[in-house]
Design a protein that fits this description.
34% helix; D-Maltodextrin-Binding Protein, domain 2; 3 domains; alpha/beta; 311 residues; 12 helices; three-stranded antiparallel beta sheet
Amino acid sequence: MEGKAYTPDEVAQLFQISKHTVYELIKRGELQAFKVGNKMRIEHTEIERYKESTKAPAKKTPVEQAAIHNSLPLRLSGSHDFLVEHFVKQTSIDLQLQIQPTYIGSLEGLMMLYRGQSDIAAIHLLDPASEEYNLPFIHQLFVYESIAVIRFVSREQGFIVAKGNPKGIESFNDLTRKDVQFVNRQKGAGTRFLLDSLLSRNGINPSQINGYKNEEWNHLSTASYISRGMADVAFGIQSAASHLGLDFIPIAKEQFDLVFRFTDDNKQNLINLLTYLQSPKFKSSLTDLEGYDIKELGTVIYQTSKMEETL
């Protein structure tokens, strides 16, 4: 067993996570891997080391718990967004509270929260059946936990195209043209959820789209395909287009929320964080808002009964 080397698929099964998460851990250097030809392998000893590093610490005494409340960093997992990046930075400056982000997509971020591997999930998941964002997934996953869902922003999603829209892309039917190259987001991303729902609604089979299987892991890297001339169109947020001087065709408005999971160790920090989210100071720090609506920023849109006396 000591000398055994595992494939990413086998590691995903061992930890009950997605293969994409394993590759993201390798990419961030949290899990060391080596290549045999073009195949990735992870040694047994490295898997044991990683398991030890993620084990929950021994239970603290009340005095020890009080001492670490303000020193423990909060872990955020989920979707990437420029305003989330700003939020993480400003929290460090204004509250001296560290947030460690893992931008891994909405679905996997929510599953990390469910497994207790993060304190906050950043999500924008459309439920096609109800056409409601986020809450249907919360209701299914979190029954006994102390949870609050906080509205962060509403965002414009649409087609990102080159300046001047040289291919004249206006609708989903244009994605099926032979002269149009598409670049997609990874499975589990909230943007991918929305795209697939809209393709289905328009009666379009993904196999008709050139580049549908070409996946990127965040909005900026996806939009960069357009700016470099490697693709003609992507589906993403307006701010990514603006960052790279590209054109944007709005298609849908989505709800982007933060999900807080309260524990004895993080409760006070999360309460402080919510107060900061609702503060004029944080709102006034938001200046680059093209494609965003912050009218409901900081609103608690759902909480479990355990949290009703707290928030």
